[in-house]
Predict the 3D structure of the following.
Amino acid sequence: VFGVGSRQADVLFIGDSLPMYGTAAPQLWAWYGIPAYTYATPQQNLVKSRRMLRRALKRQSPKVVFLEVNGLYREIGDQEVMSDWLCSWIPVGEYHDNWKKIPLRELLQPVHYNTVQESKGYYLNMYQSAPATADYMHYDDPEAEPLPEAVGLLKTIGDLCRRKGIKLILYSVPNAVSWNWARHDAVSRVSKELELTYLDLNTEDVGIDWSTDCMDKGDHLNYLGASKATAWLGNWLARNEALA
């Protein structure tokens, strides 16, 4: 079972598949000497983001947590809320079919993380597939408002980070499929209401070339795009002395 690791990470990236492929934690160490981990899972909503952060904080004391805001648009059903409650009592329940391989006496015991992931949570992909257009930010999005229940969860995550002395930073990985100015403006407003910093890499000079830097028509960055996005984040951390 994968865990966030026992070595201390100063920076955690939490979110769905966008940071999985778009934020290269090992690069922060190699280029900036910043120990980091990309703690992301496919289709992660904010219920799971909160649960994963709580789990990480049992072993880690990060100075900064970056939360990818695509989770603000992922629906949260009653089943997900119930699953979150059950996983707090039956930890192995979160790991899908793994329960079939675990002896009955161990099912209710805390999960023992025994696999080291050398990529620190980052999934490298070199495939190239360009989007139909790079002018994606001007799309008229009728569903630009974050889900109210997700905003409520974001507030609890922010409160948790404040209690722990952690800087919570909202960010958007460049994405030519689901992002646009309407969503940027909506998340910017929420971040101001909650007194959080929001970094939208879709609106910054990251240097993304959509003809070469994404792997599935603009939805996820490949290694070339992730390297540029991570370099921008590393420079931002250094300029703003966020780890001081």
In short: The mean pLDDT is 87. Residues 142 and 182 are 9 Å apart (CA to CA). Helices lie at 17-22, 25-32, 46-56, 78-89, 148-164, 181-193, 223-239. The longest helix spans residues 148-164.
